[in-house]
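Below is a complete specimen:
___
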Amino acid sequence: MGFPEGFLWGGATAANQIEGAYAEDGKGLSVQDVLPGGVVKPVSAGPTPDNLKLEAIDFYHRYQEDIALFAEMGFKVFRLSIAWSRIFPRGDEAEPNAAGLAFYDRVIDELLAHNIVPLVTLSHYELPLHLAQEYGGWTNRKLIGFYENFARTVFEHFRGRVQYWLTFNEINSILHFPILAGIMNTTDKQDLYQAIHHELVASARVTKIAHEVDATNKIGCMILAMPRYPLTPNPDDVWAALDAAHDDFTFGDVHCRGTYPGYFLRKLREAGIELDITEQDRIDLRNTVDFVSFSYYMSVCESATDTTRGPGNLIGGVPNPTLAASQWGWQIDPVGLRIVLNEYWDRWQKPLFIVENGLGARDELVDGTVADDYRISYMNDHLAQVGEALSDGVAVLGYTSWGCIDLVSMSTAEMSKRYGFIYVDRNDDGSGTLQRYRKKSFYWYKDVIASNGATLTP
């Protein structure tokens, strides 16, 4: 079975990794603006001058050029995020910042002029700094209302122009990177799980609002997908893998089934955690999503006894001895993508959307291009497995390659970890012209899209 007619091929980005212009046109500070780099350091009081995200790749001023390049590749869809602090600089205002809305008007109109469907993430590891400092981030129930106001504002403003929406990027990553996903400077498990509950309620309420504003809106959750294999056939290892997978499944189960699963409630009981859940919360959670989107980069093994961790195992897991790894230690597992697609389809019976996948590598610009055959090989092998999943009967809406244009890395805050089909002349020290160059993979992906996947090799 080939890729279906209307399959949405494209690329994905995040506002804080491409836009720059961190203080232009009334934008307020976000947590990303004050991170000194990476995902494990504490948030500072103000912008850090070494933060590459303050300028990023200057998409804010170069969006027309970049969207023209996406159109040249034949993109059917482009995933972007709206920076909350561009629309509500502090996060708790009653009225939006008109200049912020106007910027996204220009971007979305430019996409539509090129017949590219916008896929918009409402919260992509980004929260107005004021909400983190004054309210404690998602530990505070008041953030649900602030998020609803933000979401309703953009739903109404872009009605008829944007129909595909994601509520929170990689919502399950709050378990591993709370400073990004939950914006909390705490290690208290009670606070962590209360923040998770508030995000899940906010996501459900916003899903309802989206459908009220426009019945044709399609709302998805977004999960960090990482299949977990038992390290050995020992039943204890098999259970260790399932138990770890449950942490990720919880978020999809709530989004798709509208209630907390029993295994999650048991985990809370045994940890002595009692969540503040109102009866209205339980009603709100029943507003389930239209589709499930996810990122996929790697798989890991789990063991009941082995605690080995590799350099790329940022969120747990034991390295798989059968797999090679990228330059950043992320183990390369194309078949794992087919496994995730089948697993999620069987579990939730919701259409799936692969909204992040790609290879971060150190590219070398030579004579105005990059011979990134390693990226072509990686993507071909993963997309071939998407084709296998389609033949398995899985409903897949589309595929947006992560970092379709080089951007600042979220996890390492550097430019040298490049994912794009388009090379951006910027270096880790901030130097460079910001000029764009087409890589070899640019033309490869263009052919894949034009052929609707027929040029992929098994």
